[in-house]
Protein: LytTR family transcriptional regulator DNA-binding domain-containing protein
Amino acid sequence: MKKQLVISTSIDLVRIVPEKIVYIASDGNYSTLVQTDNEVRMLSYQLGQIEKMISSQLGSEGNIFIRIGKSLIINSSYIYYINVPKQKLTLSDVASFNHSVTASKEALKQLKELLEKEVK
Structure:
């Protein structure tokens, strides 16, 4: 069975396979998790706490996730388009979903450079 990210709160518990997570965005003391089926979940965890959950629960399978600046964790498998000057990042599977998010120019520049190194 594939590893799943288990997120538990005082009232509920959800198990999500990593491939179903498109991105997680910071929202103050909460985070918003967006899935490939366009389901959106509000989580009562800060991004740093979720980052630790990914690392401890998923191990090397968690390496598909990249922290972008202070406000985003993205699934690198879905990076489709990066525009540094416009601060735009599009995450898509090119078939069923397409999400555009904003990030700092510096964070996007670093992400772009990281991806360029991977293809060389």
